Amino acid sequence: MKAVRFHEFGGPEVLRYEDADRPVAGAGQVLIRVAGSAFNPADSGIRSGTLPFPVALPHVPGYDVSGTIEALGEGVNDLAVGDAVVGFLPMGADGSAAEYVVAPADVLVKAPTSIDLADAAAFPSVALTAWQALFDLGGLTSGQRVLIAGAGGSVGGYAVQLAAHAGAYVIATASPRSRDAVTAAGAAEIIDHTRSTIPESVSEPVDLLLNLAPLSPGEFEALVPLVRDGGIVVATTAWMDTPGDAARGVRTASVFVQPDVDELARLVGLIDSGELVVDVAQRVPLSELPKIHVEAATGNLHGKVVVMPAAH
Question: How far apart are CA 93 and CA 77, in angstroms?
Fold first, then answer.
């Protein structure tokens, strides 16, 4: 089969589009014929060795997958050959940037039927991150106010949609480039962070602050007074501490996304009901994945990219 792999850690130049052995499903696993993979910023960190995931070399990147089950490993009874599935793969294992990938059966759910199967690879990890940040950690409920910093990114788009769908009042930061998309996702207020600061733009306290933006520690700290007493600050910025205010009961939480299949199935249901939109900015063949890593490294990548394997 064809795959994109790296045999050493480094920049995008270490990625190779090459022949690789087709994997075999073991006990509790399935073999998936890949329809779509997805590029995520963490892929760059794993490739460069800066994210602490112990991967074996050579390594196939890509931890979001959509595709069709080709074979079942021993003990798999809830899925069948031919099922269209979607999932968030273990980040330390070989991934979906290949014609075939092996996946644990217990991280997969039936794919949405209302969108193209390849496009379904665009949502698992990012939508799960948004869900777990807002609801599992943030406890967001209808009528609450949420401030989402960095709403123009992939996770942010789902966070805005999910928060608005839950009946929250959504205040979102966005650049002029992403303003229309964030508005369409359901934000009630948009803060253009290129023209004004967030603290001067929020007039009433929020119940939940979700930070998805690469703020400096000082910039992040300056947002905490916007959170009401007893509120919460949630962040995906694992490279720095999440600030809170113990004196006012403002709690903190950091998101480390988990492959929760019940939540993933709920997200699929929202997609098929038309209540959650999967946005794909680019679709590229597998052979062009190294170019996507280059674009990401140079800051020229905007929106979610779905990678599709070459025809078999």
Answer: 23
Give the helix ranges, DSSP H, for 124-280: 124-131, 154-165, 179-185, 198-201, 217-221, 261-272
Residue 239 pLDDT greater than 60, yes or no: yes
299 Rama class: left (phi>0) / alpha (psi -120 to 50) / beta: left
Preceding omega of 58 cis (within 30 degrees of 0): yes
Amino acid at 7: H
State the Cα–Cα distance between residues 196 and 17, nearest whole angstrom: 44
Q: Residue 306 and residue 66: Cα distance in Å, rounded?
A: 10
Q: Mean pLDDT of all residues in the chain?
A: 94
Query: 25 to each of 4, 29, 32, 144, 307, how far by Cα in Å?
Result: 20, 5, 9, 45, 22
Reported confidence tier of residue 88, pLDDT bands at 50, 70, 90: very high
pTM of the model: 0.95
**For the residues of 173-197, what is the DSSP string, one character each?**
EE-TTTHHHHHHHT-SEEEETTTS-
Q: Is the pLDDT of residue 264 over 90?
A: yes
Quickly count: other Cβ atoms within 10 Å of residue 268's Cβ. Answer: 23
| Strand intervals (E) in 61-105 | 64-72, 84-88, 100-104
